[in-house]
Amino acid sequence: MPYAVIRVAKIKTQAHALSATGHNYRQEQHPHSIGNADKEAPHPNREYVNHEKKDYWSLLEARIQEAGVRRVRSDSVRGMEVILTGSPEGFVRGQDGRAADYSKSKWAQDNLNFLKEQFGAKNIVSFTLHQDEKTPHIHAVLAPITDKNTLSADQLFNPKSLRQLQTEYAQAMAPHGFERGVEHSQAKHDPMQRLYGLEAQHAQRVAELTRPQVPAPAFQLTDPPLLGRDEWKAGEEARINAELARQAEAARAQLAQVAKLAQANTAAAEQVRVLQKQLSTSEGLKQGHFGALQTAQQEEVILSRDYDRTAVQYAQGADLPELKQYGQQVREETRQALVSTLEQTLAKPVKDAADFQAKLKAAGYHAERDEQSKGTILVHEQTGARFKTAEIQPNGQFIGPQLTAAIERTAQQALKQSKGQSRGGGIGM
């Protein structure tokens, strides 16, 4: 059975956070943007939380401030990057070897829900699905804020809690056909890129060491003297033996380096094999079930069905349960994403209703009037999914009162700021 694997890494500095931002959002100008990403990948990368793709450091600092964490040391770990993945045999690929599009899959949504339940929805500042490498994978960034409102990566991510996290993650992924890896495994989990880099360096060095050497110059004997031939013979033999010994030692040293590199390569290759098996890597992810489909056969029907053929079948009254099921799943995922967008928007300054609608428009939604109920319907522009306000209750409450409260809060904050500036009497230098 394929493995479910989760890995974590600390984000300690602003430089580290910016590097991770550049990598995960494929910023070409960033020195850490990944070089082996497929620029012609058939399926898009997707950000589920940080839609504006702000840098991680700013997001983490904002979340820590919002949570009201009192003590933040200069060396405190501000964030954790979590890699969510599974081994290759658990997922479906097309005939061309490429993975299917998982950007709207239930697997991805279940991963997001898992992190929210584990660490709190507000602490998840980014959740990114990559589909432009050999296998899809998820990078999530979160603020390690405890239930007691303290910033403590050591409390949330220690050896004991990490083992428990692995177990609970595998349990959450069991419906998708994944299981937990071997507990207390002694395998060292290095990033796949580092192993491949070492392997390439070793291969280059082995090639240099095994390159044919320039033949050693032939031995030149000195002319034997007329007297003292025995001493001359002994001296020449010692000289020749010393040179042969030097060459033999050089050859042994060269062979020792080759053996050492070969052994390192073997260890690296074994680690790569284990990493590929368990996908204990920041670049491994594949989805075993697509959307709400329960079998690969159902998925294949969805992926291979021609649009025109489907339309004709529908027009002729054909029952398409798997298509309906998939559509319902996409709609539910879109609804959950809309709720999250509304919660984030209402938490920010909102000047008026027009400003609120503009923010929703920027996030990919717009409002329409429902002629039947005379109410408002929010429409997702990409999928066309339509939602009545009763279906989307951010923070478990209706939108109207929360929007009114957000507008009033913004006005009060602006008034306080204006009064503060007036009392200041000028600009300090």
- Tally of individual helices: 12
CATH architecture of the largest domain: 2-Layer Sandwich
Shape: elongated
CATH fold label of the largest domain: BirA Bifunctional Protein, domain 2
Structural class by SSE content:
alpha+beta
Give the ordered list of helices and strands.
EHEHEHEEHHHHHHHHEEEH
How far apart the termini lie comes to 66 Å
Q: Write down the overall mean pLDDT.
A: 75
Helix content: 40-55%
Low confidence ranges = 186-200, 266-305, 425-429
Major sheet size, sense and barrel closure? 5 strands, antiparallel
Read across the widest sheet, the strand sequence of neighbours is: 1-3-5-4-2
**Name of the level-1 CATH class of the largest domain:** Alpha Beta
Strand content: 5-15%
Per DSSP E runs of 2 or more residues, the count of β-strands stands at 8
List the helices and strands and how they pair.
Blueprint: E1 4-11, H1 14-24, E2 46-47, H2 56-67, E3 79-86, H3 106-119, E4 124-130, E5 137-142, H4 153-156, H5 159-173, H6 192-209, H7 229-278, H8 296-304, H9 307-315, H10 321-347, H11 353-362, E6 365-369, E7 376-380, E8 386-388, H12 399-424
Structure description:
- With 429 residues, the chain is of the alpha+beta class.
- It folds into 3 domains: 4-176, BirA Bifunctional Protein, domain 2, CATH 3.30.930.30; 192-219 and 228-278; 321-424, no CATH class.
- 48% of the residues lie in helices and 10% in strands.
- It is built from 12 helices and 8 strands.
- It has helices at residues 14-24, 56-67, 106-119, 153-156, 159-173, 192-209, 229-278, 296-304, 307-315, 321-347, 353-362, 399-424, and strands at 4-11, 46-47, 79-86, 124-130, 137-142, 365-369, 376-380, 386-388.
- The strands form 2 sheets. Strands 1-3-5-4-2 form a 5-stranded antiparallel β-sheet, sandwiched between helices. Strands 6-7-8 form a 3-stranded antiparallel β-sheet.
- A hairpin with a 6-residue loop joins strand 4 and strand 5.
- Helix 6 runs antiparallel to helix 7 (229-278).
- It starts with a strand and ends in a 5-residue tail after the last helix.
- Residues 186-200, 266-305 and 425-429 have low confidence and may be disordered.
